[in-house]
Amino acid sequence: MYSERFQQFIEMWRKDFAIERSMNEKVCVDRDGNPIPWYTYPAIEYISQFDYSAKKVFEYGTGYSSMYWAKRAQKVVSIEDKPEWFVKFQQEFSAPNWQMRYCDEKQGYEDTIFTDGEKYDVIVIDGKRRAECAACAVKALAAGGMIILDDSDRINTSLEYAGAVKNLRDANLLQVDFYGFCPMNNYTKTTSIFFSRDFDFASLYTVQPINGLGNIWSMSRRERKQFFKKQEWPLLGDTAQNEGQK
Questions:
Q1: What SS3 class is residue 165?
Q2: How far is CA 164 from CA 142, 144, 159, 198, in A?
Q3: Which end of the chain is more exposed for a tag (fewer CB within 10 A), N or C?
Q4: Could you give all domains of the chain from N- to C-terminal order, each with its CATH number?
């Protein structure tokens, strides 16, 4: 039998993170059905704090992340190398500020970032040839920008990922790793963000960090008090009650 606290934990994942729907339907969406990237949840919550309304985004790899960025950024360019996925997303997704381009490895996949001669504030590496893409990304990164390398924990078993991380570190970018669960998967992974040393994206909020999903401090004092009354803290004495009073 599950304890009441564990059942509350499961319910939080179902409701706030929509993880059950994500796994069962194989979709990357939040609790309101909005598309989210296939990054770890801590990475998604972190990047969602910033204002991208004047930012340009380039993605190596297309997916639900494309619509996530299109809802936030001024311009999004996504490169797809798989014909079947190109057709799928072309039919399912659309946005006036989003361009999806097909390019396989034989057509200079990593060099497509230079096609428009632009610099990008956010560059996502989540497709093929990640080491080569990382080398190109640092050249196309705008001042103060960031590069997102998904599945970065594969560095432990892949020379390609080791090369990608090396190229980003050699560019004097600051690496921050976000470990945790992600949409659709029943296991953890890592999404790493490499920041320019002068990174200064404006926040959408007056404070940072904001309350994340499932955070009790987004509750009213009365709701927190009721929440803690339901907890079982046999070894903590009055700790839970004290927390609920804050």
A1: helix
A2: 19, 20, 9, 21
A3: N
A4: 17-195 (3.40.50.150), 215-245 (no CATH)
